[in-house]
Amino acid sequence: LFQLFPGVNRVVEDQLAFGSTRSISRRFRRHFCSRDKHALFAVKKVEVMDKVDASLHRLPNATPVVGLNCKTAFENLSPSERLYAHHIARASFEGSLAVFLQVSPESAGIFVLLHRIFSSEPIESVKEKAVVAGFTEDEWHNFLVWTGAFYSNSGNYKGFGDSKFIPTVSADKLKKVVASSKAASIFPDLLSIYGAVEQGIFSLDSRTAGLGFNDTGVTTYHSESVRKADSDLINRYMKEKHIEGWNTRFFKEEVNGKTILKIKFASTSAGVSEEEFEGVTIRQEKGDYAEILARTCTHLKKAGEYASTANQKAMMNRYVDHFTSGELNDHKDASRLWIKDVNPIVESYIGFIENYRDPAGVRSEFEGFVAAVNKETSKKFSHLVEKAEVILERLPWGKAYEKDTFLKPDFTALDIIAFGSSGIPAGINIPNYDDIRQNEGFKNVSLSNVISAMPKQKMNFISEEDENLIFDYNGKAFEVQVGLHELLGHGSGKLFQRNADGSFNFDKENTVDILTGGKVTSWYEPGETWGGLFGQLASAYEECRAEAVGYVLCCDADILKIFGHEGQFGQMIKYVNWLSEIRAGLLALEFYNADQQKWGQAHCWARYVLTKVVLEAGQGFVTIEETKDSEGGDDLSFKLDKTKIDSVGMPAVKEFLKKLQAYKSTADVKGATALFHKYGSVGSTELKWREICIAKRKPRRIFVQPNTKVTVDGQNVELVTYQESSEGVIRSFVERYSSDSIADLERLWKEDQKYFPRAYGKN
To answer: For the segment 361-394, what is each residue's pLDDT rounded down to a tens digit?
Structure first.
């Protein structure tokens, strides 16, 4: 608006900078438009720009719900192993309530509202009240889909894509259901809770449509008042003090006329310290999510009682120390013990792990999981680990750019029993701490029952022959891609560093820059980390690098043989992997925000970049053509020439991969950014493709997870499963949490409200 009407007083700009777009427009109309027709034109133009297509933010009623089948794996566990798994599952689920406080200002309040409604009476009874309130059958079905998706995504923004989703029913109808619910007679404040979150449930404009910094998006990792200058300052402070932000949030507060920048640490213990930095008061404050983490600690202590080894027991204790103290070194110590927990029967990990959703790329979402090892599939990954050192030599950067010693990790296939977070990945490579990964090692896990839980849906843009090939081979092809992506993608490559004593972890005089042929001239300084230095770019960049490793190495027959795929069958696996992954880069355009010109999901941006790389390679390897469907609507035709994978596709990706690694190793943020944005930009042709992708998009699956329940005698654990439906998801969540857990979440949500006034109608 200020670009369109630059004559506005800058004081007014400062006052309005954190109001909603519509409130700004109203103020401009009132104060300026009556006197200046150009101002009126500017406001009208902005109001048009601010409109968001609501259809893109509503979930179709046909959204598939799939179960995580772990019944056989769970039944194969001994009673003590089940008890160990049960308490880690409970710790993970209890801790994941923190995610609702990490996503949006309203998410925790919505969770409280929904839990009280559906825990107070059967779903069928709520439906009767909805019909009286005027819900149509489609609206009721959609409300169940929206509720199931809300639970599964740990908030009202998609865990994959970061875009907001809203119900189709009107606010008036939903309010009537809340007022008439049995919960309203049990909880006198239910309507006030609804009043507080109603705006958050239904509002949709250019800012609230997706996650991001609070000036252009929504986040609760930072308070609304935090601005870029504040963020830059706190980053300088954290670097100087050697503070890593994984388990923190960043709030700005005015106290008695004094500005305080607060770093809030997740912990059960309380504590405050202050110091001046660059003329500003910095407060380190412990105790974020305290009540939630207290329950997590209780179950981790119980899990330790059933641990099968001393190492596992020590690991549980260190997790407890971390969640109690908020000290990151405690979690790093727990991660070191986790790396040493080789070939466990029950696998798990818990903490503030992935920083995908913090717009600054610094702070991480809570995540916890427990799983039973799939021994048969794990054998393949063990063979891959054994040959990893030899395979790494095939990557296009040479020995100097690889870790001095490849620390062979544990790599297992798992059947997930419980996963508490905003989404469930297909594979994981952790821990994410650079110092541990570089010098001590890591572990890889492939989530077998996640990979296999794929609904069969009609596929867009490809021939019927290719569609059938994907149906037949993609499960096995994706297993290969996940294995290579996690172990040899995320597990490869060296970061060049200057140590605190001035020495280097590489031969500074003789190491050749693989892009220029000269000497290496940049590296990571003491206190700098990969994620901290590359910031917002880091997640997508690293996912792209790992994806590219999978594309390149799946072309080798001996690697395919490790997974049991030889001859013609192996060649088909290679083709389907390339076909599926490169096509995914086209479909990823759905997750590009054209208005803000930014990507909402790291993996999608990564795949899109690689699709652009192979399109640039030309020679008819990949073609995307605009066509018409059977009804005359816009359509696309995607083709990949299987005969040119080795001669065109693989060399192009391999050369690009070399550049990715070179910039990452040498801490060259400028070079990396230029390279990634060159291929990651979306032009007019791609915007047209995006419109078609959105028009024909398929709904993503929602998982319904089981619960575990200790038997009456306390000596064993039962697995409680639910139907594959939105109702099943709702019942699983209602039975997962006690009223005490919900009351604690409500208190924490109300404490946070003062940091997010816009979410509650206060500009």
So the answer is: 899 999 999 999 888 788 888 899 999 999 999 9
- Residue with tokens 């997870």, as numbered in its chain: 705
Name the residue among 558, 384, 401 with its Cα closest to residue 488. Answer: 384
pLDDT tens digits, one per residue of 107-149 = 999 999 999 999 999 999 999 999 999 999 999 999 999 999 9
Q: How many residues does the chain have?
A: 763
The three-point CA angle 674-676-681 to 5° equals 95
Which residues does 624 contact at the CB level (< 8 Å), separation at least 6?
461, 586, 615, 636, 637, 638, 689
DSSP character for 2? T
For the question of residue 486 being annotated catalytic, the response is yes
Distance from C-alpha of 729 to C-alpha of 523, rounded to nearest angstrom: 48
497, β-bridge pairs: 524
What does each C-alpha distance from 53 to 138, 162, 173, 592, 593 come to in angstroms? 20, 16, 22, 14, 12
| CB-based contact 462:579 (threshold 8 Å) | yes
User: Does the annotation list 490 as a binding residue?
Assistant: yes
- Rg (alpha carbons) of the chain, rounded to whole number: 26
Q: Are the beta carbons of 559 and 619 closer than 8 angstroms?
A: no
Residues 6+ apart with CB under 8 A from 278: 233, 236, 237
Among 367, 402, 479, 486, the one annotated catalytic: 486
Which residue type is seen at 524?
Answer: Y
Distance in angstroms (rounded) separating the CA atoms of residues 417 and 413: 13
- Asked whether the beta carbons of 585 and 605 are under 8 A apart, the reply is no
Name residue 534's beta-bridge partners: none
Q: What is the CB neighbour count within 10 angstroms for residue 458?
A: 7
485 is in an annotated binding site: yes
Q: Rounded to an integer, what distance in angstroms lies between the CA atom of residue 144 and that of residue 116?
A: 15
380 contacts: CB under 8 Å, gap ≥ 6: 413, 479, 483, 562, 563, 564
Residue 14 in this model has a pLDDT that exceeds 60: no
